């Protein structure tokens, strides 16, 4: 579990990647969203992530839920971290009403490599 936490903090939550992860959410919200039940969205989006990782020649390292703000609304976005230092934004939940949405397309972004000081 500590390895997974370290991977999340050094990639998805790292300061240099905040803009990329935020851009993923913005890109998802710009496309049509389909409401879906939570478990169905999770299962479907994990399949999408696995397929996208395979197309990238990588594997899914982990799935992470991230709470993010967009304008005046808070969302919880499911993100998959790939083994090639890329991530894909998946389904989102409106934190105010608990409704899950599946996007029409899922953006893949390249994350900044971890640097040691």
Oligomer: single chain
Described by the principal axes of the CA atoms, the overall outline is globular
Give the CA-CA distance, first to last residue: 25 Å
- Element order: H for helix, E for strand: HHEHEEEEE
What's the tally of helices? 3
The rounded Rg comes to 14 Å
The percent range for helix content is: 25-40%
Main sheet makeup:
6 strands, antiparallel
Low-confidence stretches: none
Please tell me the overall pLDDT.
88
Hey, roughly how much beta strand do the residues contain? 35-45%
Structure classification: alpha+beta
What structural keywords apply?
117 residues, 6-stranded antiparallel sheet, 3 helices, 34% helix, globular
SSE arrangement:
Elements: H1 2-10, H2 18-30, E1 33-36, H3 38-55, E2 60-70, E3 73-82, E4 86-94, E5 100-103, E6 108-110
Antiparallel strand pairs: 1-5, 2-3, 3-4, 4-5, 4-6
Report what the structure shows.
Strands 1, 2, 3, 4, 5 and 6 form a 6-stranded antiparallel β-sheet that branches. The chain contains 3 helices and 6 strands; from the N terminus they run ααβαβββββ. Strand 4 (86-94) and strand 5 (100-103) form a beta hairpin. The mean pLDDT is 88. By secondary structure, it is an alpha+beta fold.
How is this structure best summarized?
By secondary structure, the chain is α+β, with helices and mostly antiparallel strands.
């Amino acid at each position: 579990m500590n390895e997974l936490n370290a991977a999340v903090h050094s990639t998805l939550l790292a300061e240099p990647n905040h803009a990329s992860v935020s851009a993923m959410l913005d890109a998802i919200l710009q496309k049509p969203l389909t409401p879906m039940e939570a478990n169905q969205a999770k299962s479907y989006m994990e399949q999408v992530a696995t397929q996208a990782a395979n197309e990238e020649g990588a594997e899914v390292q982990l799935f992470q839920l991230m709470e993010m703000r967009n304008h005046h609304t808070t969302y919880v976005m499911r993100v998959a971290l790939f083994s090639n230092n890329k991530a894909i934004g998946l389904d989102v939940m409106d934190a105010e009403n608990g409704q899950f949405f599946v996007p029409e397309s899922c953006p893949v972004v390249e994350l900044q490599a971890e640097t040691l000081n």
